[in-house]
Amino acid sequence: MWFSASPELIGDLADRPHRRGLGDLDIGFGIAMLLVSTRHGAFSSAGRRKVLAVRDAARNRLWTAGWRYRMLSRMAQGSRNNPEAPVSIPDTGGLGRARSVLCALWRLAVCCLTGFLILSLLLVMLYRQVPPPATPLMLLRFAEGYGIRKSWRPLDEISPALIRAVMAGEDQRFCLHHGFDWNAIEMAWEQYQSGSGEVLGASTISMQTAKNVFLWPARDWLRKAFEAYFTALIELAWSKKRIIEVYLNVVEWAPGIYGAEAAAEHSFHKPAARLGPTEAARLAAVLPDPLDWSASRPDADVLARSAFVQRQMPRLPVRLPLPCGKRP
User: Fold this and answer.
1) pLDDT average per 10 residues of sequence, the chain (328 residues)
2) Alpha helices in the chain (DSSP H)
3) Using H for helix, E for strand and C for coil, what is the string for 194-248?
4) What is the dihedral of CA 234, 207, 179, 115, to 10 degrees?
5) What is the Cα–Cα distance from 23 to 78, expressed in whole angstroms?
6) Quick check: helix, strand or coil at residue 32?
């Protein structure tokens, strides 16, 4: 004999999950009512919807119970393997989000560093054969309204007097070091620490080439670090002849005037190949301050510095072909 439940009883049972939660006995009783009453058609479609709500609640409760059982089993298994280890539940809150942000930042930093290294190596190898089309300083001066006037010349078309004059005024040990004059750096550092007098410059022609070609004109430590990096690169990848050839063609000689050819035409109305020792010494003398000093209208400071450069030119440790013979 089949048992039949009234719709009122089934409806009261279906409403229990919404009033005070659903117990295990309620779940079993509700499923039984669903089976029996559905077979005999004891209630309407509205009552059937309520009974289906009981069934869905039962399914959710069984799923939750199974999840709890699996978690407790894993924790018990971990405790058996390591009895002294504290029981921990994975953290999915603020700490997890902070770790995700740090990982993303780390990946971004690695990508940026890798891109910088690849780009710097490509530029150094490219400029070993190709003249740099422009430099950061040129673009900055152009934005300031000075314009850009330059004309590339190979080293063979530049006066040997100008090559000697620039070495005498900027880096007399150019052929003896590998990018860094450590004696000059040590002297400049000692004077900087003592705080007495003007800080000496220890920049070599290689360092000035790296700064002019690749970097911005500033005196901060970050730029110095990049300058050391590019100096090491060009000393490894370029010859001494290529370093001074690039330097003489990109360095600023006057506002908006870059390279030996443009400087010779601007100051003395002649090509760089025809410069004499006095003219070359004047051009070399204005390199520390090309915006305020002029080779064509020299003041007392320029004349004094050019005289010093002319005295030093015959004493340079150079070999033919300039600047350093056949040294790579």
Assistant:
1) 47 48 53 52 58 62 61 65 55 74 93 96 97 96 94 96 96 93 82 63 91 92 94 96 97 96 97 97 96 95 96 87 80
2) 7-19, 24-40, 45-81, 94-127, 136-143, 160-170, 182-194, 205-214, 221-237, 240-250, 260-268, 277-285, 300-312
3) HCCCCCCCCCCHHHHHHHHHHCCCCCCHHHHHHHHHHHHHHHHHCCHHHHHHHHH
4) -40
5) 31
6) helix
Residues 225, 210: Cα–Cα separation, whole Å: 11
Predicted pLDDT of residue 326: 75
Question: Which amino acid is it at 280?
Answer: A
- 3-state DSSP call for residue 107? helix
8 A C-beta contact, residue 283 and residue 263: yes
Cα 158 to Cα 259: distance, rounded to the nearest angstrom: 10
User: From its phi and psi, is residue 197 left (phi > 0), alpha (psi between -120 and 50) or beta?
Assistant: left
Which residues have C-beta within 8 Å of that of residue 158, sequence separation ≥ 6? 245, 248, 260, 261, 272, 273
CB 253, CB 266: distance < 8 Å: yes
The two three-digit tokens of residue 182, written as one number? 């450590």
Cα separation, 116 vs 118, whole angstroms? 6
Token duo for residue 11: 């409806």
Of 118, 38, 80, 305, which Cα lies nearest the Cα of 7? 38
Q: Which amino acid is at 56?
A: D
